[in-house]
Amino acid sequence: MLTFVGVIFYSTSVAGAGAGNVPVVVAAHDLAVRVPVLPADVTIVQYHSGDVPPGAFSKVTDLVNVVAAIDISKGQPVTSNLLIGSTDSVIGPQSGYLPIPSGYVAVTIPTGEQQGVGGYIQVGDYISLVATVAGKTSTNIRTIYTNIEVIRVGPASSETAPIQGSTSNPPKVGGPSSSLTVVATECQAEFLTWFLSNGNLKYTLESYHDYNVQVAAADPTCPTVQSAKGVSASDIATRWPGILN
């Protein structure tokens, strides 16, 4: 009899989610940080009462006007501590060092409310860069780069400034700022410096549906920081034909 009871207890304990009678809202698929959580993004799974995590929701309709504060995996309970009411409040943990792939550099570019999409650009976003330069006969506007990853927004404070190889964890920063730090090759950094010195740059914020997140590999056209050879007006004209006409 004791053996039978033990088997029943063990079976009940390991059954976990999907075998109880308490409804719990879980992610129907992987949910990305800062993305709105909609009814189609979640589903109901039955949990044992003892397995229901703190802050769990029992009804899909309880989730109204919320976004994911961190990445949430498929099947993971969507609890109140994983949700917020505004993307501006996302702070989440970040790496203790700047996430710069080998062969790339971090470069800081100026921004502002009009220049930088009203301050909606945040860490982890991808942006396109639009240059305005004076040509021989008119002002020319050209999108010079797309899918540029933003790794920091605004200046680092003295208390949270990341140092290569350190363990400090600066938070994400939202809202209007004076600068964006992006990942680029050294060659791109030279081109950006030329446009900032000889024209103007504005930014567009790409839809998260269009992010082209890939495993970073060395750019064959500029594989190392030693590949940059300087930039002149003739290099600009070759790289972007007609932009100086």
Question: Care to describe what's here?
Answer:
The chain has helices at 2-15, 186-198, 233-239, and strands at 22-27, 42-47, 67-68, 83-84, 105-110, 126-134, 139-153, 179-184, 199-205. With 245 residues, the chain is of the alpha+beta class. The chain has a 5-stranded antiparallel sheet, with helices on one face. β6 (126-134) and β7 form a beta hairpin. The longest helix has 14 residues, at 2-15. The chain starts with a helix and ends in a 6-residue tail after the last helix. The relative contact order is 0.15.
Please tag this protein with its features.
245 residues; alpha+beta; two-stranded antiparallel ribbon; 9 strands; 14% helix; elongated
Set down the secondary structure blueprint.
Layout (H helix, E strand, L loop, with lengths): L1 H14 L6 E6 L14 E6 L19 E2 L14 E2 L20 E6 L15 E9 L4 E15 L25 E6 L1 H13 E7 L27 H7 L6
Antiparallel strand pairs: 1-2, 3-4, 5-8, 6-7, 6-9, 7-8
Mean pLDDT across all amino acids: 81
Shape summary = elongated
Q: Distance N terminus to C terminus?
A: 91 Å
User: What order do the SSEs take from the amino end to the carboxyl end, as H and E?
Assistant: HEEEEEEEEHEH
Strand fraction equals: 15-25%
Task: Give a brief description.
This protein is α+β, with helices and mostly antiparallel strands. The protein has helices spanning 2-15, 186-198, 233-239; strands at residues 22-27, 42-47, 67-68, 83-84, 105-110, 126-134, 139-153, 179-184, 199-205. The chain contains 3 helices and 9 strands, in the order H-E-E-E-E-E-E-E-E-H-E-H.
